[in-house]
Amino acid sequence: MAILSVVGRETTSPLVIVSRTKMSAGHVCIGAFDVENKKNVRLLTSSGSQQPEEVPLDIGKVVIATYISTSPSIKAPHTEDVRLLSFSDHSNAKEILEKFGEICPVIVGSIEDTFSGALSRDGSNSYSVREENVPNHSVCFWRTDDRLVLDQGYQQRFGKIKYSYGNGFARVGIPFVGFQDAINVIPAGTVVRLSLARWWRPDNADYPDKRCQLQLSGWFI
């Protein structure tokens, strides 16, 4: 597994909040895009833990933030982790949001073109990244080449949201972990945010290796 050494460096830049996803124990994962440095960041607290649910950082909010990378060993692909030291509302948020589509990089093509081609399909009809092929990032924006369809049966059985990509035997499920209200169909051509979950090992002897499962964090229609 790749490990990247990081030298702590304080950065102050405009950030657009692009995702807010559910974590355990009343925490949320906050994703943002650094407008000046043109990169994705994941905003941890100043102590390096996940943000509490009450943090006032919602999708579409623009802030001036100061953050720092302080971990001596960040394990790829989760290289976006930074510690948020302070933030305040940006006075020119409207203009930044109007230009955001021109600034933010979006991948065009098949879903398998995302994450440097490192996604592999497993026996549960989902995509994940394995230890033998790890990209250097865990977040990307992708313009869907096919529609994503809400799996209503899965939602009824498990109370969780998952979208299906592809058809028949080629169909793959992508769990949705954001706070947006589910819609039945995310049309082809929609820009979505994809992310890779933290490393985990399935409780299944048939799949003994660690992996990062592909997740859908949100969409922009």
From TrEMBL:
<dbReference type="InterPro" id="IPR054335">
    <property type="entry name" value="DuOB_dom"/>
</dbReference>
<dbReference type="Pfam" id="PF22557">
    <property type="entry name" value="DuOB"/>
</dbReference>
<feature type="domain" description="Dual OB-containing">
    <location>
        <begin position="15"/>
        <end position="219"/>
    </location>
</feature>
<protein>
    <recommendedName>
        <fullName>Dual OB-containing domain-containing protein</fullName>
    </recommendedName>
</protein>
